[in-house]
């Protein structure tokens, strides 16, 4: 079995040691080297040609964002950003995603155990190793035509949209949400992302979209014109009281190695939303969301999966299709229009 070769770049000797030790337990992953800063990393990348790089953002001599931009220009590789659980770190991570990083993970600490980190890091590395960097570059460079039709919606009563995404999802979600008009039915989103990173991500989307985008809080109502993003490290579930839809934010075990998990959201939407809902599953590694989407379809919801050509990683959509839970398979930029037709 060919192993995924990883380079760990971090100025913390402790982090380099923890990542190397934890990843050594994975049979399909090998840490071929570590580096304390981008200058050492550059030489090791040229010499060793790793499959995936984990990269800290705050380092001496050169910050990770600057190094990432240089790497994407001269030696594009799948990069997973590693940062601390701080709001500032979250904002930097979002800039890194805009600059070409594949995914983000936080360093272990009080709110994030070594065990949780290890399982998620291994999954993210596997996902990153499957990314077609040439296709990724084309996606980042793509611009939707200025004359693209504006979406509109005349009736929004009691409708819901539930979206799940993972690897590559930050850009995919931006492309989808930016097309929705202000009176779009209430949206609930699970994007695999650690705590505080979701805060920065929601703020970034809110600044770009016609709809309001916010990190969900327990008890938030699901209302037209607003998208609720599940906070990192917490599951989000739909509930209903009379005619009012709202969300509960809760802890709980990892599901499909994730918290928040798409399956947790989709299962609750199947139970409380039924035929009033549309489910969308976007790019991502693994099978999170597949069984939940099937339950949504069985409950009368209409469902959409992103197609393989436009996915960064065609894992979650593929599993949902294989499970029989998908009504339509659609290119990324056509998904908002298809959602509106279903509504």
TrEMBL record:
The gene is cheB. Its EC number is 3.1.1.61, 3.5.1.44. Contains a C-terminal catalytic domain, and an N-terminal region which modulates catalytic activity. HAMAP family: CheB_chemtxs. The modification 4-aspartylphosphate is found at residue 56. This is Protein-glutamate methylesterase/protein-glutamine glutaminase. One of its GO terms (cellular component) is cytoplasm. CDD domains: CheB_Rec (cd16432), REC_CheB-like (cd17541). NCBIfam families: PRK00742.1, PRK12555.1. Keywords: Chemotaxis, Cytoplasm, Hydrolase, Phosphoprotein. The active site is at residues 166, 192, 288. Belongs to the CheB family. GO terms for molecular function: phosphorelay response regulator activity; protein-glutamate methylesterase activity; protein-glutamine glutaminase activity. Pfam families: CheB_methylest, Response_reg. The keyword Phosphoprotein applies. It is found in: Cytoplasm. Residues 5-122 form the Response regulatory domain. Involved in chemotaxis. Part of a chemotaxis signal transduction system that modulates chemotaxis in response to various stimuli. Catalyzes the demethylation of specific methylglutamate residues introduced into the chemoreceptors (methyl-accepting chemotaxis proteins or MCP) by CheR. Also mediates the irreversible deamidation of specific glutamine residues to glutamic acid. GO terms for biological process: chemotaxis. InterPro entries: CheB-like (IPR008248), CheB_C (IPR035909), CheY-like_superfamily (IPR011006), Sig_transdc_resp-reg_Me-estase (IPR000673), Sig_transdc_resp-reg_receiver (IPR001789). Transmembrane segments: none annotated. Residues 154-343 form the CheB-type methylesterase domain. It comes from Thiovibrio frasassiensis. It is an enzyme of class 3 (hydrolase). Phosphorylated by CheA. Phosphorylation of the N-terminal regulatory domain activates the methylesterase activity. Gene3D superfamilies: 3.40.50.2300, Methylesterase CheB, C-terminal domain (3.40.50.180). It catalyses: [protein]-L-glutamate 5-O-methyl ester + H2O = L-glutamyl-[protein] + methanol + H(+); L-glutaminyl-[protein] + H2O = L-glutamyl-[protein] + NH4(+).
């Amino acid at each position: 079995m060919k192993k995924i070769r990883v380079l760990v770049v971090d100025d913390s000797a402790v982090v380099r040691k923890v990542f190397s030790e934890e990843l050594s337990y994975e049979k399909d992953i090998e840490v071929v080297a570590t580096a304390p800063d981008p200058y050492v990393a550059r030489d090791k990348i040229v010499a060793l040609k790793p499959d995936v790089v984990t990269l800290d953002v705050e380092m001496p001599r050169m910050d990770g964002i600057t190094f990432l931009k240089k790497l994407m220009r001269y030696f594009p590789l799948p990069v997973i950003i590693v940062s601390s659980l701080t709001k500032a770190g979250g904002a930097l991570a979002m800039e890194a995603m805009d600059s070409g990083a594949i995914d983000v993970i936080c360093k272990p600490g009080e709110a994030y155990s070594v065990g949780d980190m290890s399982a998620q890091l291994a999954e993210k590395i596997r996902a990153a190793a499957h990314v077609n960097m040439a296709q990724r570059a084309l996606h980042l460079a793509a611009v939707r035509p200025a004359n693209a039709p504006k979406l509109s919606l005349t009736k929004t009563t009691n409708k819901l949209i539930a979206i799940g995404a993972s690897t590559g999802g930050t850009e995919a979600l931006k492309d989808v949400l930016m097309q929705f008009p202000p009176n779009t039915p209430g949206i609930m989103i699970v994007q695999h992302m650690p705590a505080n990173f979701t805060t920065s991500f929601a703020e970034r989307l809110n600044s770009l979209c016609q709809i309001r985008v916010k990190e969900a809080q327990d008890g938030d109502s699901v209302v037209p014109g607003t998208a609720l993003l599940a906070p990192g490290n917490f599951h989000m579930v739909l509930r209903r009281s009379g005619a009012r839809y709202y969300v509960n934010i809760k802890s709980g075990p990892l599901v499909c190695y994730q918290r928040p998990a798409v399956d947790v959201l989709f299962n609750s939407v199947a139970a409380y939303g039924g035929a009033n809902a549309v489910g969308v599953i976007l790019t991502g590694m693994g099978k999170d969301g597949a069984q939940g989407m099937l339950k949504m379809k069985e409950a009368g919801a209409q469902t959409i999966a992103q197609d393989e050509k436009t996915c960064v990683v065609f894992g979650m959509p593929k599993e949902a299709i294989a499970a029989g839970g998908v009504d339509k398979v659609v290119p990324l930029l056509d998904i908002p229009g298809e959602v509106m037709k279903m509504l």
